[in-house]
Design a protein that fits this description.
41% helix; Rossmann fold; Pantoate--beta-alanine Ligase, Chain: A,domain 2; 2 domains; 10 helices; six-stranded parallel beta sheet; single chain; three-stranded antiparallel beta sheet; 283 residues; alpha/beta
Length: 283
């Protein structure tokens, strides 16, 4: 495994791989890696000749600058985990390498960005599109791998790929959870012991809501989750939406779509956590 710091060096190394007709997979990350990330890396290694993992905390996707400062950074640990997982190249650029000048590009995602995360994190998805497109141009992967915990982000990235007509496949991978059910996230490292004990209730209430949904309306199920979350003093709910899994638009009835997903964002103390659950799958 090699650690690469610049786009020019990365392009040079990957050009040699392409000349050998090797397929290239990319796993974009912001570091502070956990087993969820490694599951993406393992799939990338299995499905491609070359696995590239980027480790870069992207400043343009943080609408809250204090969140950017607090975001965990563990580069040495990350590198050791990636080497063990079979990664070929780790791309660890500095901010100046990715943004030698401000990126003024504005992406437009229509209704996809006007729901859920969109109103709560203005500019977030534009920042995601900026950095992910930069990574796609630098790596030119055949496939890129993303976790379904960031459900809305995957839809945004698919839209960006279509808009830019990039020749790659986006692979969405299932959420990886802790033994007690909490969705794995780098942000979990910031939870206090008390907050960590409470955080598991997010996934527990979502799971309970799927049982509840079998005999109740969509509106009643949404109210069920909101009431459960609202009853916990450590929690502050940003949103809980039950949406079409393709368009991300809120639904009024279970019969309105064959792909129904519940998406949630909750503050547990000062730490914002997201999760989702599939009520009805077309897969």
């Amino acid at each position: 495994m090699e650690i690469v710091k610049t786009k020019s060096e990365l392009k040079e190394k990957l050009s040699a791989c392409r000349r050998r007709h090797q397929s290239i997979g990319l796993v974009p990350t912001m570091g502070a890696l956990h087993a969820g990330h490694i599951s993406l890396v393992s799939r990338c290694v299995a499905e491609n000749d070359i696995c590239v993992v980027s480790v870069f905390v992207n400043p343009t996707q943080f609408n809250d600058k204090s969140d950017l400062v607090a975001y965990p950074r563990t580069p040495e640990k990350d590198a050791a985990m990636l080497e063990k997982a079979g990664c070929s190249y780790v791309f660890m650029p500095e901010v100046e390498e990715m943004y030698p000048q401000p990126d003024t590009r504005q992406f437009h995602f229509g209704a996809l960005e006007q729901v859920m995360e969109g109103p709560y994190r203005p500019g977030h998805f534009n920042g995601v599109a900026q950095i992910v497109s930069k990574l796609f141009y630098a790596v030119e992967p055949d496939r890129a791998y993303f976790g379904e915990k960031d459900f809305q982000q995957i839809a945004i990235i698919r839209s960006m790929v279509a808009q830019l007509q990039l020749p790659l496949e986006i692979i969405a991978c299932p959420i990886v959870r802790e033994a007690d059910g909490l969705a794995m996230s780098s942000r979990n490292q910031r939870l206090s012991p008390e907050e960590r004990k409470k955080a598991v209730l997010i996934s527990r209430y979502l799971s309970e809501s799927r049982t509840f949904a079998a005999e109740n309306s969509l509106a009643a199920t949404k109210a069920f989750v909101e009431q459960k979350i609202g009853s916990e003093p450590l929690f502050r709910l940003d949103y809980y939406e039950i949406v079409d899994g393709r368009t991300l638009q809120p639904l009024k009835s279970w019969d309105d779509s064959d792909y129904v997903v519940g998406c949630i964002a909750v503050y547990c103390g000062p730490v914002r956590l997201i999760d989702n659950i599939i009520y009805k799958s077309c897969k």
